[in-house]
Amino acid sequence: MADSFVIAVASGKGGTGKTTVATNLALLISRAGKKVQYVDCDVEEPNGHIFLKPAIEKTEAVTVAVPQVELDKCTGCGKCGEICQYSAIVAFKKNVLTFEQLCHSCGGCMLVCPTNAIKEKQKEIGSIDHGSADSVGFVQGRLQIGDVRSPALIRQVRQRTAAEGTVIIDAPPGTSCPVIEAVKGVDFVLLVTEPTPFGLNDLMLAVGMVRELKLPFAVVINRSDVGDDKVRQYCRAEEIDVALEIPDDRRIAEAYSRGDMVIDVLGEYQKHFADLAEHIEGKVYAQRGL
Amino acid sequence: MKIAITSTGETLDSPVDPRFGRAAWFIIVDSDSMEFEAIANDNVGAAGGAGISSAKVVIDAGAEAVLTGNCGPNAHRSLAAGGVKVYTGAAGTVKEAVEKFNSGELTAADGPSVGSHFGTGI
User: Fold this and answer.
1) What are the pLDDT digits (tens) for A54-75?
2) Chain B residues near any Cβ of chain A (below 8 Å)
3) Parallel, antiparallel, or unpaired: how do β-strands A89-92 and A55-69 relate?
4) Is A102 in contact with B56 (Cβ distance < 8 A)?
5) Residue ranges per domain, chain B?
6) In chain A, which residue's Cα lies nearest the Cα of B47?
7) Mean pLDDT lowest for which of A41-45, A72-76, A218-222, B108-112?
């Protein structure tokens, strides 16, 4: 049975519970006897490992290409600087400077250089860990401290996702380039939010993003009994599916603070997450016409 | 000599803009004759690399020195590569800054005066 699909857990606002939802969903699916992989794409601060406690079996370095100029071949024409949209390379006559942190690795400077004075060199930006936690496959990206090129690293992490089974991507917060890189092309997106003005504002941005990307999605409302009713009103008005509501339960906060899994500590949540998994599967299969 | 002053306006009486990369204008002044031209800075709203692009503007304009409030690391490295001396801490009007420069009251900065992204306000 071909039941492979990729679910991304995202949110506009940070701290809404993406990792709680993603890790518990992954563990629950694996305990149901299915093949599942948890992929932490929140590469600036991956924290799924705190809850899943994986054994890391392999770590690989991730590099990106940046320009290296051979000044003896440079004629000082300045074309490299003109094509660069990020000021990562700039020519002051024959004095060519590169700013590796700003480089987006497009290769444009190498293409336009008339004397082939620019070569590619590899620059390390982070690493990818591979491992497993019980039967949950585990992959996480870690961006080097001080580096800013998370989209390039997330793209590499996405290339390591399993070809079969369920893949659960823990996306970074926000709606900008790193998030797009983490969610594009997935089968389903879960948007985790909270019923507060910030939660609503950022949910609306996130909904705009997934609609632009034409991705099917549903909302999870965390701490659903605090704040106000505006997130629910918005979801009703926009005909957005609310797949799960998690109440503001002190026991969940306590479990989280110890690094425990919610489904281990609070038995009733096994059913909630099982229902959520089934709900998403149903939607994905319906979409595929199965 | 030709010097570039970061300015909030396009005249010699305009206040100095304390930012380099995201300054509103560059006033290119002949420090002897006080003849000047004003260049609007297209990099004010740049997503990134504003200091580097702005350095290119003042170097291409032929300036040998920059008078400004603050200058970040990428801009400083770029200006140094173009042989331009940087004088930070300039304040008051553009004209007052040039007068202070002419009387030797400003000293060239050996390195950047602020970190990256200072001029973005975040």
Assistant:
1) 999 999 999 999 999 999 999 9
2) 46-50, 52-53, 55-56, 59, 74, 77-78, 81-83
3) unpaired
4) no
5) 2-114
6) A86
7) B108-112
ipTM here? 0.79
pLDDT exceeds cutoff 80 at B122:
no
The two structure tokens encoding residue B56:
């290119």
Provide, as residue numbers in chain A, all residues whose Cβ is less than 8 Å from the Cβ of B49: 86-88, 99, 102
Angle at A8 between CA A218 and CA A40, to 5 degrees: 145
Residues in A touching B61 (Cβ below 8 Å):
none
Pairing of strands A217-222, B65-67: unpaired
CB contact under 8 A, B49 and A88: yes
Report the alpha-carbon distance of residue A71 to residue A78 in Å, rounded.
12
Which of A92, A95, A102 is closest, CB to CB, to B49?
A102
Find chain B residues with C-beta within 8 A of A81's C-beta: 56
Q: Looking at the predicted structure, is the pLDDT value of residue A80 above 90?
A: yes
* Cα torsion angle, B114, B115, B116, B118, sign: negative
A174 neighbors A72 (Cβ within 8 angstroms): no
Tell me the per-residue pLDDT of A122-180, one tens digit each, with 9 for 90 and over. Answer: 999 999 999 999 899 999 999 999 898 999 999 999 999 988 899 999 999 999 999 99
Q: Which domains does chain A have, with CATH numbers?
A: 5-62+125-287 (3.40.50.300), 71-116 (3.30.70.20)
Question: What CATH code would you report for B2-114?
Answer: 3.30.420.130
